Amino acid sequence: MIKRISSLRIGHFMAQYAIAFVLFALIAFFSFTLDNFLTVNNIVNILRQVSMLGICAVGMATVIIIGKIDLSQGAVMALTGIILAKLMLAGVHPSIAVIIVLVCSPLIGIFNAIFIYEVKLHPLIATMATQQVLRAIGYLISGGLPVFGFTRSFTIIGQGHVGFLPIPVIIMLSTFAIGYVFLNKTRLGRYIYGTGSNEEAAKLSGVNVRKTMYTAFGISSFTATIAGVVMLSRVNSAQPFAAIGYETDIIIGSVLGGVSMMGGEGNLLKVIFGVSIMGTMINGMTMHNVSEYYQILVKGLVLLAAMTYDMVGRRRAEKKV
User: Which of 39, 235, 274, 277 keeps 20 to 30 A from 209, CA to CA?
Assistant: First the structure.
């Protein structure tokens, strides 16, 4: 009996922290196969890459928990960079320009929510259409060319440090902390989980599903805008074709972190490990000179494996009930 309880506890522990073991295994593998993988410069580079992925993942996880999807985040990042760059070139102070884009960003999420909740469009179609619209606006505003020439002092957001920590990582960790408190310690956060578990039951329980849906998509666009600010500051150039396909990495990172595509389940603390796995895997494959085509193949397989694991786990849980 004692042995059985111990084995159950070990099994539960392994299931809870499997994502952490995968990350450490990846780090160990690339450390042994690449001489310069664990150098300070490369670790800082991975952290910077993961930071933008992680910031977006907070918003993506929120939308997935509510049972939806948002394919417009990469386009939001690119358009944010273009508008922000144009504002600074027009003489607007960088801090004012950042505030403007951040304040306006939830409107994109509300736009998505209107078509999803009011018009009843499938979120995949609605957000894909928004993605195309935002990409087109970005190309029209920029003329299809990179936008640069603004003040170099703005680059501190994406390239600066506080002690040994890059500022983008501090922004990411702050975003995760705020997102965790919101989802787990507030009434609206609990409504997001409840709506994702069973939208009809949430309505019958008195939950304002419309407000909850609008909030979730507003958060998704807001976090993508923060990532867009970081990206512009890091590369010091706004490009209309930036962050194409970025949504795939964000979704994979969220699903790897245990956010269920069926809605109602997800823990932002584990999502940190999920996006770290994505950043480590991409960096390691790039340093191994793995072709971009093979990298896409690996990402697809990882997404399939994560979603299959999620579905199998759901079915086993339903059978136990």
Answer: 274
